[in-house]
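INTERNAL TRANSFER SHEET
From: sequence group
To: structure group
Subject: Integral membrane protein

Please process the attached sequence and return the structure record in the designated field. Keep the field labels unchanged so the import script can parse them.
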Amino acid sequence: MASEISPPAPGRAGRTARGIARVLAAAGLAVDAYVHAHLADRYDAIVQAVSQGTLFRVEAGLAALAALLVLAWRRPVADAFAWLVAAGGLALLLVYRYVDVGELGPVPNMYEPVWSTDKKITAVAQVVTLVAASFLLLTRRHRPGRHRR
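Return from structure group:
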């Protein structure tokens, strides 16, 4: 029977680094949420079955929820949710910036081949969130007494 070796518990520096990463992830998500909520009404006229404004509001809501979870819940699932929201938002931003996908079922054509200031800010915020959430996921502590069998 092989014994499992868990990494040493992080000291004060490790806790500080993880705390900073949580704040950075939440801040990036908050910026993402704000920009999408702020711009949503401008995109209400772009409609297939659902408007682009509605999709912006959904992104804003998911980003706001992820920001709260990454700060308050401090569990790997919250960190993973934050990572997924940022990664999904960034992927869609880049696809609709560089590829004219057209309408996809109920989703309107959201192709916009320019780098507006809001788009740049959102992209940077999502990258910051991805880096911070990746750090949180890769440095998470294993609790003593919880061994996999």
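Handover comment: The two ends are 11 Å apart (CA to CA). Residues 36-138 form one domain.
Transfer complete.
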